Amino acid sequence: xxxxxxxxxxxxxxxxxxxxxxxxxxxxxxxxxxxxxxxxxxxxxxxxxxxxxxxxxxxxxxxxxxxxxxxxxxxxxxxxxxxxxxxxxxxxxxxxxxxxxxxxxxxxxxxxxxxxxxxxxxxxxxxxxxxxxxxxxxxxxxxxxxxxxxxxxxxxxxxxxxxxxxxxxxxxxxxxxxxxxxxxxxxxxxxxxxxxxxxxxxxxxxxxxxxxxxxxxxxxxxxxxxxxxxxxxxxxxxxxxxxxxxxxxxxxxxxxxxxxxxxxxxxxxxxxxxxxxxxxxxxxxxxxxxxxxxxxxxxxxxxxxxxxxxxxxxxxxxxxxxxxxxxxxxxxxxxxxxxxxxxxxxxxxxxxxxxxxxxxxxxxxxxxxxxxxxxxxxxxxxxxxxxxxxxxxxxxxxxxxxxxxxxxxxxxxxxxxxxxxxxxxxxxxxxxxxxxxxxxxxxxxxxxxxxxxxxxxxxxxxxxxxxxxxxxxxxxxxxxxxxxxxxxxxxxxxxxxxxxxxxxxxxx
Length: 508
Hints:
Layout: E1 12-13, E2 18-24, E3 31-35, E4 40-48, E5 55-62, E6 77-83, E7 98-100, E8 108-120, E9 123-131, H1 133-140, E10 143-150, H2 151-162, E11 169-171, E12 177-185, H3 187-197, E13 208-213, E14 216-221, H4 222-225, E15 238-241, E16 270-276, H5 279-284, E17 289-296, E18 301-308, H6 309-313, E19 331-332, E20 353-357, E21 365-366, E22 373-374, H7 381-396, E23 398-405, E24 415-419, E25 421-425, E26 428-431, E27 437-449, E28 456-464, E29 467-468, E30 493-496, E31 502-505
Parallel strand pairs: 11-14, 15-24, 17-20
Antiparallel strand pairs: 1-6, 2-3, 2-6, 4-5, 4-27, 5-9, 6-7, 6-8, 8-9, 10-12, 13-14, 16-23, 17-18, 19-29, 21-22, 23-28, 24-27, 25-26, 27-28, 30-31
Helix pairs in contact: 2-3
């Protein structure tokens, strides 16, 4: 299949956009269904790993009183489709686009009508806010029951039984069997709580996310998002560059043909750094180190567990891992030196000190005939809390925002490759080794505008990462800069004396 597209930023929007009322038209037994495509000026779609369901907004301009026939109450169904040319539901190489139709079974629910205005006589403007059906169901239900199973199985039960969803669920298996009692939580809050307690069966990671994309729902850990089925670094679904010299459409060449998307799908219109290090916050959040004190009220025992970022870092996959295998050295997102002799930031676990109650083994079951014990864990926080806090904090400490041509193949939870330049001299630039690299897409905001007959599509991506491809300076107490100048001489170097004073040394 050849990928055909006139230019970057094109979007194929359904010819009809239907709004269905909860009431019937006079003389009919069917709900009143109206094509509002001519009224639509703008569509916004949102998805993110921190958002449980998809949502959006639609701007309508009515100059002929069309909507006066349909009283807007915030109880309507909204139907439309949208996908990037070349990325169709039948294309197995790329994720499908958005299909919010009755035929698919997944229309959107209008829950709010706002900013109703009349800018000129006879002209009315509206903004319809809509969301997935599961968000409506979530607001109507509370769960009060016990779950005794691997957490991913409990999530499946909540999704099917309480959210009444038949959408696909892409999940990562968890281990072990756990028992929880949910005290009147909404279904989504229940899944979020279970996600904080989940331990991956495949990866040495903890802390799961639950979110929705055009494919369906996902329940996965951060490490699973950035790894493929073989457990190694996932290939990016798109490449972006804010360099003025980029090859048009290079990520979208069809291997079986020569067709490419005309225009630059990789072009970055806007680039913003949202976060780049916050050492104090990272210390307080337990990114570098933490200490947890657990107390078992049944055995009357307590224990202390220290967490060390450098040790755990080597045990998991990271965004800085560029090769398809695990042989590539991955470098920490931040230098973790400390201004004390022979100490690193990871050597101070009391920076994040926690007291928790733990009752592991309280619900273990013993077979009276065989004597075999089935482990039923409860709130094994010592196995999850510190690791998940550190991993999440590391990802949140480095975030960028880019505005790029719309592409429905890029979803929340996707991996992309981003390239930006840095000025090394008045006449020379090079690829920034720290800002560039692989990123995890944590949020996607689509903007589809219809100023003409052909809609334009751009999207804003919030991207995060927890490591860099090029190492920082060596983590030792001397903090020596050993880089060479072009003339072969060392640049200025410094050490820190015992009194904590910075002492500079000239090497040329």
